[in-house]
Amino acid sequence: MKKHNFYAGPSILPQEAIDETIKALQNFAGTGLTLASVSHRSKEFDAVMNDAVAMFKELLDIPEGYSVLFLGGGASTQFAMIPYNLMKKKAMYINTGTWATKAIKEAKMFGEIIEIKDDDFFSIPKGYDIPDDIDYLHITTNNTIYGTELLEDLDVNVPLVADMSSDIFSRKIDISKYAIIYGGAQKNLAPAGVTFVIIKNDILGKTDRKIPSMLNYQTHIDKNSMFNTPPVIPVFTALQTLKWIKANGGVAGMNKRNTEKADTLYNEIERNKLFKGTVAKEDRSIMNICFIMNDEYKELESQFGEFAASKGMIGIKGHRSVGGFRASIYNAMSIDSINALVDVMKEFEEKN
Q1: Rounded-to-integer distance, Cα 281 and Cα 273, Å
Q2: Cα–Cα distance, 13 to 131 (Å, whole number)
Q3: Is residue 140 a contact partner of residue 162, using CB atoms and an 8 Å limit?
Q4: Residue 137 belongs to what domain range?
Q5: Which end of the chain is more exposed for a tag (fewer CB within 10 A), N or C?
C-alpha cells in the first residue's frame, strides 16, 4: 500500500532529492568517501555550498546586497539571534500562533515588545498600526498548527523580519521588502538540521551590544556559512531540492501546484457533510490544511483517523493543542496524494 505523508515536519521531500542524497552517502562527488564524513573544507563540498546559495538567489530572485546563510540551531535559535542583532530598544511582533509566541518570549529578553494578537489564532490580525520608532516588525507567514497564512508581502516602512519555515518557495516573494527571512528547512527544503537565513547586509551593525561569535550574523556572512562545521548532509539535500524546484517550474510552478492541491482539499472539506474547516477563509493556508468533524459527527473523529491510517494516510492527526485533523501539503507533495485523501474522506462519508 502506498503511504501518503501528511506530517507537518520533518516532512515529505522530493524523491529525486532523497535518491541523490543516498548516492552521495555512498560516494560523494566521485571522492570515494561518504557525504557523512567528507570534509566541509573540501573543494567538493565548497561547491555544494556555493551552488546552494546561488540556487536560492536565482529561484527567489534575491537582489544585490543580501546574503544567504545555512546555519545550525533551527528556527528556534533565530528567535534569539534576530533581536540580538537587530533590536536596540523596541520591536513589534504579529502573534499568529505557537511559533510566533515562542519568538516573542525570546525577544522580550532584549527590549520592549509590542504584540499584536487576535482572541484566537484562527485568523490573521488586521487593522493594526505600525509605529515608526520600532527596530523591526516580525511576522510568521505560515502557521503550521492553526493553518493560517499570509499570502502576500506586507508593505511597511520599518525593517520586516519573517519566519518562512513552512512556506518558503511556495509563492513569489518580493525579497526587497524584507530585512531578514529565515526558517527551518525540515518542511520544504531538507532534513532537519539546517536553517536558512536571507539577510539584508546593511541591516547589521546598528546595535551597541557585543554579540557572541556564533550568534552574530556578520560572522557567518564573512565565512560563507562555514565559520564552524555546517550541517553537511542537509545542505546537500537542500541543493537537490532546489534543483527539483527549478526543474518543476520554479517558484511559479510550486505556487500553481500548491494552489491546486489546497483548492482540491478545501473544496472537499466544504462539500463533505462530516467535516468543516477551522480557519477564516481569507486566511487559509495552502501549506497546512486544518479541519475538524462537524458538531453532529464529533464521535466519529477517532474512527476517521483510524480509517484514514488504514488507507495509507500518515500524519493527518491535528496538533495536540488544536485537535481534529491537519494535512500538511508542502511543495514536494503531489496532487495524487491529495486526491487519495479526498477519496478516503468521500468513502468514510458514504459509510456514515
Answers
A1: 18
A2: 40
A3: yes
A4: 15-247
A5: N
The separation between CA 85 and the C-alpha centre of its own chain, rounded to angstroms, equals 22
**The three cell numbers locating residue 157:** 516602512
Residues 191, 206 within the same domain: yes
Total number of domains in the chain: 2
| Cβ pair 199, 179 in contact under 8 A | yes
Q: What is the pLDDT of residues 167-210, one digit of tens each?
A: 999 999 999 999 999 999 999 999 999 999 999 999 999 999 99
Q: Is residue 254 within 8 Å of 170, Cβ to Cβ?
A: yes
Query: What does DSSP say about strands 112-117 and 275-277: parallel, antiparallel, or unpaired?
Result: unpaired
In a shared domain, residues 139 and 196: yes
**What is the rounded CA–CA span in Å between residue 40 and residue 235?**
11
Cis, peptide link before residue 10, omega less than 30° from 0: yes
CB–CB of 73/220 below 8 Å?
no
Catalytic (active-site) positions = 99, 163, 187
CA atoms of 189 and 14, how far apart (whole Å): 9
CATH of the domain at 299: 3.90.1150.10
What distance in Å separates the CA atoms of residue 332 and residue 214, rounded to the nearest whole number?
A: 32
Cell output for 77: 535559535
Q: What is the pLDDT of residues 28-51, one digit of tens each?
A: 999 999 999 999 999 999 999 999
